[in-house]
Amino acid sequence: MVTTLVLAEDSFLIREGIGKLIETLDDFELVGVCEDADALLELVADLSPDVAITDIRMPPTHSTEGIEAAKRIRQQYPGTGVVVLSQYIEPAYALSLFEGGSEGLAYLLKERVSDLDQLLDAIVQVKGGGSAIDPRVINAMVEARLTQTDPILERLTEREVEVLGEIAQGKSNAAVADSLFLSKRAVEKHINSIFTKLDMPPERDSNRRVQAVLLYLAERDEQ
Prior knowledge:
Strand order of the largest sheet: 2-1-3-4-5-6
Number of helices: 10
Number of domains: 2
Distance between the termini: 47 Å
CATH architecture of the largest domain: 3-Layer(aba) Sandwich
Largest sheet: 6 strands, parallel
Shape: elongated
CATH topology of the largest domain: Rossmann fold
């Protein structure tokens, strides 16, 4: 089954580049292209694509039009996932994008777009109602804050805080296990305990891993 995509990007060269990349992907079709957020919303309304890919900054103000458009799309057209492309590692942008919920949203750095695997993974994740955030953005969010004490961490054991810190650096369960000298099963148990203590029960189309990291980082960002 073909996954339909629309793209909003005001740079001609980037539009063409992304379009060419998508053409190389099997079972993916770019059905609409535009240059600003208003036109993107019209494309989504008219074409009902599976996924919208949008630049973070577009006319008229070149501020956060892409983020605002992504939020509106998720509210008004929940069947459409959104991948926001940004050249900025700034954590505040990612937190703003996910503040109302992470389902069906991804935040990917533009420099990653040339890596088809990363772009494809983000598209697949949001199409299925999941979410994704660029590991470099996560690293920037935690780099200067891992030694701080935060109210949210008071719910967790010392080991659970260590596990969550590793997850926040973009590590897989296997990588966390290797780093902390734990078994993979022990890491899974710690993660399930973290979700429970952070009031994140299993829900359909809910990426609790991303939500836990964002909650963790948002609390740190307020210190």
